[in-house]
Amino acid sequence: MMKKLSTMVLNFALLANISGLLLITLSNHYIMMFVGLELMTFSFITIMSPTSPRQVESSVKYFIIQASASIILLLSLIFPSTQISMIFHATLIMSLLVKLAAAPFHSWFPEVTQGMKWKPAALILTWQKLGALIILSRTLMTESKTIMTATAVTSAVIGAIGGLNQVQTRKIMAYSSISHMGWTLLLFTISQPIAMTYFVVYSIITVSIMMTMEYHNSNHLSKMHMDSFLSPWTVAATLSLILSLGGLPPLGGFLNKVMAFKEMINNNLSVITLIMILSSLTSLFFYLRISYSTTLTSSSQHTLSMLTMRTKKMTTSSTHKTPPFTMIIASSHIIPILGLIIAPTMVVSLMNMTS
């Protein structure tokens, strides 16, 4: 009975979360957008459904941070349009950046993400940021683009550097999210459709990686090494997704980065483009480190015959199969490779059409 009630509450929270995003999308008034944003926040706390002390701590931290940002957001909305309206516009932008975990308001994000279950962690990295992004797209003014550009570059650099010394997979994904949020915010100052396309592609890849990590409970890089002997097909799929998230050519995520680079160069942002390329290469290091921990390390107790035996056992066992959704998304990253081999001109033409 209690389990059934818990499922009903969770389903209601999911419905409320989706309704909040729809309210933000369809509203033309800031107060209604604020209501939708708060509906998403409070329903997400229910979705987190903490069971351990660490998860409760993460939920409380998330609530305090979001409540503080909401107070600042509400204060910026209730002030009338006066000579100092730009100050309150900047305050509005700041509150949204806190909710998006963009630098320099990012320090809470890795710890909160680390304390969550896998599914809520996947949501906070992707879906939960959509509401604030939509409001930000409607409030972005020409005068605030300089601040947004500085925030975007800072987020990309801090996200790339912060993930270098991490060994816990959820923290690595959190810093990856901060870095990719920098890319998204920078593209918002140039082209909002391109920015949303970038964020959607990032979200699909991230959710697939998080689902695979949850499937094998890979909380630590060393655990991913253990899984490489149990589920090589899952490791291969995850490897494709991780390298695609890092923008390694010629995978699908690389085309996402090329599209962003082209927009920046077309808008004469050469210096910023160089900084973003360097941050992307830095973040690619810890993506490659995950790949190294997953596939290129071996223990002395794992001989080739043992690996072959476990691989054969894996193919007949139902406990180490790859999640179908992950395999579909991972397979889709082969399409750009085939396209570049078979019809490179067509791929270039499609990229020109999108930008």
TrEMBL record:
GO terms for cellular component: mitochondrial inner membrane. It is an enzyme of class 7 (translocase). It comes from the Eukaryota. GO terms for molecular function: NADH dehydrogenase (ubiquinone) activity. It is found in: Mitochondrion inner membrane. Its EC number is 7.1.1.2. One of its GO terms (biological process) is mitochondrial electron transport, NADH to ubiquinone. Pfam families: Proton_antipo_M. It is a multi-pass membrane protein. Core subunit of the mitochondrial membrane respiratory chain NADH dehydrogenase (Complex I) which catalyzes electron transfer from NADH through the respiratory chain, using ubiquinone as an electron acceptor. Essential for the catalytic activity and assembly of complex I. This is NADH-ubiquinone oxidoreductase chain 2.
